[in-house]
Specification:
The chain is α+β, with helices and mostly antiparallel strands. Helices cover 16% and strands 36% of the residues. It is built from 3 helices and 8 strands, in the order E-E-E-H-H-E-H-E-E-E-E. The strands form 3 sheets. A 4-stranded mixed sheet has the order 1-4-6-5. A two-stranded antiparallel ribbon has the order 2-3. Strands 7-8 form a two-stranded antiparallel ribbon. The longest helix is centred in the first third of the chain and has 10 residues, at 33-42.
């Protein structure tokens, strides 16, 4: 299972959104083919061993960031007529930050033992 307990799919498409219901029960919701496709893509995260997957449409919209995507092949998604090319996000390489800010690795001594503090990498 994902470290966060959730899987994410990034996709681009047309949707309908708004409040649906009556006076005693009103819900904000998003519906449409793009929502269904995003749900099918997120269902592929576990079989592909990834926490985040990106659709071909989303990848095409990322100008200059395609280098941060790794192709995961084309897959048949339930209820979707065409094969969908999926991509995984490649995490940004860790760098030592001389300012000891985000992404920094610090060492300090506590009680005679050396401890490392490492912040999480940004995607």
């Amino acid at each position: 299972m994902s470290a966060t307990g959730a899987y994410f799919a990034l996709h681009v498409g047309d949707v309908f959104y708004g409040d649906i219901g009556g006076a005693d029960r009103l819900d904000f919701t998003v519906i449409g083919p793009a929502v269904n496709e995003a749900a099918r893509i997120s269902a592929m995260c576990r079989p592909l061993g990834r926490d985040v997957l990106v659709s071909q449409a989303f990848a095409a919209a990322l100008s200059g960031l395609q280098r941060r995507l790794s192709p995961m092949g084309s897959h048949t998604l339930r209820g979707i007529a065409q094969l969908q090319a999926l991509f995984a996000v490649i995490p940004e390489p860790r760098r030592r930050d001389r300012r000891r800010g985000r992404g920094a690795q610090r060492r300090r001594t506590m009680g005679g033992r050396q401890h490392a503090h490492i912040t999480c990498p940004r995607l």
